[in-house]
Design a protein that fits this description.
Blueprint: H1 3-10, E1 19-21, E2 26-29, E3 38-44, E4 49-54, E5 59-64, E6 69-74, E7 84-91, E8 96-101, E9 104-109, E10 121-125, E11 132-139, E12 145-151, E13 154-155, E14 161-162, E15 168-173, E16 179-186, E17 189-195, E18 199-204, E19 209-215, E20 222-230, H2 231-234, E21 238-245, E22 251-257, E23 263-268, E24 275-281, E25 286-292, E26 298-303, E27 322-325, E28 337-338
Parallel strand pairs: 7-28
Antiparallel strand pairs: 1-2, 2-27, 3-4, 4-5, 5-6, 7-8, 8-9, 9-10, 11-12, 12-15, 13-14, 15-16, 17-18, 18-19, 19-20, 21-22, 22-23, 23-24, 25-26, 26-27
Amino acid sequence: MDFQVEKCLCLIVIIASTVYSDEDYKVRSISKTQYSLGHSPYWDVKSQTLYFVDIYAGSVISYKPSTRERFTAKIVNGPARATASLIIPYEGIDDKFVVGVNRSVANITWDGRSNTASTPSVIVEITDNKTMYSHTGKADPKGRLWIGTFPQLFTNSSGSLDIPLNQGAEYMISATGKVIEKIPNITAPEGQVWSTNTLFYFANCLAGKIQVYDYDNESGEISNMRVIFDAQKESKGRSPAGLALDTEGKIWVSMITTDSNYGTVIRIEPDSGKVLRTLTLPTPQLSNLVFGGENLNVLYVTSSQLNKKYLNNLNENAGRTFAVTGLMSSGKPVTGYPGQRIVAI
């Protein structure tokens, strides 16, 4: 798909029931709702349900494609601090989820079919720095939770939002609930994915890099960091955010764009970082993604409308969640959070 086709596609407004496409794939928004910062999508194979969060609304969302029903439950209230950064089902325990709330890891009880959930019960505080929030996270192949921290945004002299640099980190929560810092001094820790239980890929978003580490599946130790993708060289004006692995071992990356009215998802070769395919979506701040659907061949992509007041490239599609079909690619089931390792309260 050449640039002119991409550009034309992005001029088409998507509403909840509208599809735009080229000969290869189709993109549909799952609803008209524009979330503040849709993030951390998780596909639950057992219930055939997509779960994700609206970080700055402090809410968790469920979406069942078979019925197109959506439910939103606010799990944390502000006004100053009210973030919900991730939601992952406990394995083997119905209606129990691990969530990121403010700077903590907690669990909730929620049937996923109503607009209320239990008050989060804190498992562990990730950091005692009150200016930090928990951010995106996933369970590794052993079921340990990996989660990042992100600094509190502030308003600069021009009135727009700025991000303090290098204050966040990537952490692993051990089977006993111990918080272990894995990657320090990160401004915006984003996507994580594990390949063949020996490699860990990490999106260092604001640095514009996808980093890979040797990974020990038993201990969770990482080492020998190298960069496989550098947006400053490959995709200027765009930064990698969410990561998803397909069945061929290739990595799909949602890109946050600053210089365009549209966003891109790229598919890369994990060894070299070579871009194999580029998809166009009609909003620039694509925050994260996951494979879902009955055959795990639907790519669900969340997005953001942060700084909308000061950015002229955000439109009526900003903050929506999209379903991309017709990719001829599929993913693998994503690991849940094993309730037997940290007792659900």
